[in-house]
Amino acid sequence: MIPPSLPAELKAALEQQLHGLPRDAAATRAGVISQTYRDGGTSAPIRTPTDALAYAGARMPATYAAVAASLNAVIGIRPDFAPDALLDVGAGPGTASWAAAQAFETLGAFTLLDANSALRELARTLAQDSRLAKANYQLGDARKLLRDAPEAALVIASYVINELDDSARDGFIDALWRKTADTLLIVEPGTPAGYARILEARARLIAQGAHLIAPCPHENACPLQAPDWCHFVQRLPRSRIHQQIKGAELPYEDEKFIYLAATRVALGPRPSRVLAQPELTKAAITAKLCTSQGLLRAVAPRRDKPAYARFRRLDWGDTIEPDAAQD
Ligand SMILES: C[S@@+](CC[C@H](N)C(=O)[O-])C[C@H]1O[C@@H](n2cnc3c(N)ncnc32)[C@H](O)[C@@H]1O
Q: Which of 75, 148, 269, 292 is most buried by a 10 A CB count?
């Protein structure tokens, strides 16, 4: 399991770069880029080294935290997963590659694909003294590069699918899956639209024989009924520079994200997943669970001390064995 904060090496490299940038300029560019994302736009406004740095300063800690949490969920279900190669598609500043390198010491080969030359340059600068220094970072449209990219045990597409046209998504998911020797991880913003994209990818992957590692404990239809939807939240620390670039006062932020981890390896029964922060009242703790049998509101009454103690430790996104959920 890896922490949600940037590895010290990456934090130091990023802050060293940010120190050379006038804080106001970085904050202004980061504001424009973030607003574009909030309006449903893409990374297209990131054109210069300053843009790339402003983007990374503002967003890399949060997207890293979301990928770290997703990889932790994978490890929780498959503790023996030991990939040797990573393919990071839409890699940007290399965020997901850093998280995967932290999570899996076994990773030796890193291939990154992205169309943005400013982000690629920044990724290479940030990684120059790290394990990722020898990564093969290819520049171009991932839909084309994927044709000749090497297969990898772990393929990650982090905060990328939202940047593709509706018409390009299905082909992109298929191409990601073709390159997946073992596990594919897709991470998207934790919005209803992000959830909808994950649902589409989920259906497509299951139709091609994928088994789901997380968050879903089954391959049945998603049991949530609109307007209900699924996402998770990861809290992460904000450094001083991160706060300044975001014009934020709190020393932490909560990143909302949704993810899907799918594998070619058949899986046995999987534990239930906690879909919201459990509700605590004087009488009981109630947890909303996605189980292999569908949705369950599991209640641990205070008088049932073992069950209550178990539910007290539960957080949004955690897993719980089905037996324990029946208590
Ligand atoms: C929001 S950034 C995410 C970067 C990184 N994966 C992360 O999690 O921090 C989206 C990235 O996808 C890249 N991207 C979007 N569409 C692409 C395409 N068709 N081909 C290659 N890269 C693409 C953008 O250039 C950008 O670097």
A: 75
Average pLDDT for residues 18-32, to the nearest whole number?
82
Q: What are phi and psi of 70, to 5 degrees?
A: -65, -40
Asked whether 56 lines ligand 1 (CB < 6 A), one says no
Asked whether residue 278 carries a pLDDT value surpassing 90, the answer given is yes
Q: Is the CB of 114 under 6 A from ligand 1?
A: yes
The residue nearest atom 11 of ligand 1, judged by CA position, is 90
CA of 34 to the centre of ligand 1 (A): 14
Among the atoms of ligand 1, which is closest to the Cα of residue 187? 8
Mean pLDDT of 89-110: 98
- Record the pTM: 0.96
Q: What is the pLDDT of residue 254?
A: 95
Q: Which of 266, 278, 272, 289 is nearest to 311 (CA)?
A: 278
* CATH (one of 3.30.420.40, 3.60.15.10, 3.40.50.150, 2.20.28.10) for 8-263: 3.40.50.150
Residue 171's contacts (CB-CB under 8 Å, 6 or more residues apart) are 143
Ligand 1 site, residue 160, Cβ cutoff 6 A: yes
Could you give the CA distance from residue 77 to residue 296 in angstroms, rounded to a whole number?
20
Res 145 pLDDT > 60: yes
Task: Evaluate if residue 211 carries a pLDDT over 70.
Answer: yes
